[in-house]
């Protein structure tokens, strides 16, 4: 096997110079670097990642801490991160915190990251105080996705604006009997999005003088199966909502399934709105508030690379990506009610950062 010493001998330089040349360090002249690269190519030398890490102090790995890996949103964010990182020779070190139940998670530990990662990207997980102290002690750059943490740059959407857009659209169609899917137990302290979206739904309903009925409010684990199971009671009797706003598309899929099992037409008997624009939303004809999930990952990866390359990234950097309402076939005015004038089908409403909105004719 060819060693770095063999390359140094063939190029007529020291082992340290070979290491610097192969790593692209500036303290090597172009002529010397060319000679080293030629020798390495002739000898088919491939640097050991472990040895390179020891010399450089860099692992070229970025720890990505996620509460779930198997769910579409988190897998899609990770895809975006990985695409941004691999362009510059970095890779994702996945740290999955999923617990045995929806309301639990594993802790962030030093062993996950120490000497294994050059930086950390945290997806939708507010760290506990002890975990925050650990990450600060490790002294590596941190970027968050999905929720804002003081002192760390972030990429996210405005979850409250997204839910407000969905709820306002339902009310604009003329619905006043509106259910909600997406409440979680207070013990789910490791996720902020469910609480932000529920608060926005309540605020919009209250502002319009509409009642948020407990019997039409579903608590579940944010999966399609969980929503379908809990939604059975929504449609069991005659006193049912004419529209259900779901805090995610996956829950909206479950709501649609439960309604149809009860013999109800979507949207003739009940309208359904989600948030995300899941990969299956177009196929299932779901009206939704779209967020570009993969873009959030790419932007987070770019921020991390900027920090690793020594560029100044402000700890207060808060990148809020826009969302847009995509109207499809799962929504319509209620069958009987005083109907407000709906937004015509084929019109998209987009909110940019900080909730500024505009309407796009398509």
Automatic annotation (TrEMBL):
MF GO annotations: DNA binding
PROSITE patterns according to UniProt: HTH_LACI_1, HTH_LACI_2
Coiled-coil intervals, chain numbering: none
Region of interest called Disordered, as start-end residue ranges on this chain: 332-362
A Pfam family this chain is assigned to: LacI
Domain HTH lacI-type: 2-56
Key words, A-Z: DNA-binding, Transcription, Transcription regulation
InterPro entries: HTH_LacI, LacI/GalR-like_sensor, Lambda_DNA-bd_dom_sf, Peripla_BP_I
Top-rank taxon: Bacteria
PANTHER family linked to this entry: LACI-RELATED TRANSCRIPTIONAL REPRESSOR, TRANSCRIPTIONAL REGULATORY PROTEIN
Record's protein name: LacI family DNA-binding transcriptional regulator
Organism of provenance: Pedococcus ginsenosidimutans
